[in-house]
Amino acid sequence: MPWVEEHVRGGRKVRRYFRWAPGARRDLAILALLGLAVAGYSGSGTGMGAQESGSGTRPRPASTAVYPVHFPGWEKPKPAPQPTVSYPIPFDRR
After folding, report:
1. Which of the 8 DSSP states describes residue 86?
2. Which of 2, 6, 56, 87 could form an SS bridge with 16, CB 3.0 to 4.6 Å?
3. Contacts 24+ apart (CB under 8 A), 63-68
4. CA 49/CA 56 separation, integer angstroms
C-alpha cells in the first residue's frame, strides 16, 4: 500500500496521498470477516455455563496400564540372527 509522492500532472500540483494496492480492500474485508468468525466461534464455548455444577474439579481418567509390562515372546526369546555366509565381508573398503 504505497504512498504516492507529491507530483505535477497536467500542469497541476498533486498532493501526496495514500493509495490502496489493487484488491487490498477486498482482501482486508475478507480477513476482517474471517477474524470476526473465529472470535465468535471461540468465544461461544469458553464460558462456564449452567451445564457444569459442583466444586469445579473434573474427574481424572483412570490408568489402564498393567505393570510390569510384558511383551509377546517374553519368556521364550528367539535366537539372535547368524551370518549366512562363511567368508568375511570387508565393509571398510569400497
Report:
1. S
2. 6
3. none
4. 12
The radius of gyration of the chain's CA atoms, rounded to the nearest angstrom, is 36
Amino acid type, 18: F
**Cell numbers standing for residue 85:** 555366509
pLDDT digit string, tens, across residues 9-64: 999 999 998 888 888 889 999 999 999 999 888 766 555 555 555 677 888 999 89
Partners of 12 in beta bridges: 9
Question: Is residue 6 a contact partner of residue 14, using CB atoms and an 8 Å limit?
Answer: yes
- Predicted TM-score of the model (pTM): 0.34
Tell me if 17 sits within 8 A of 4, measured CB to CB. yes
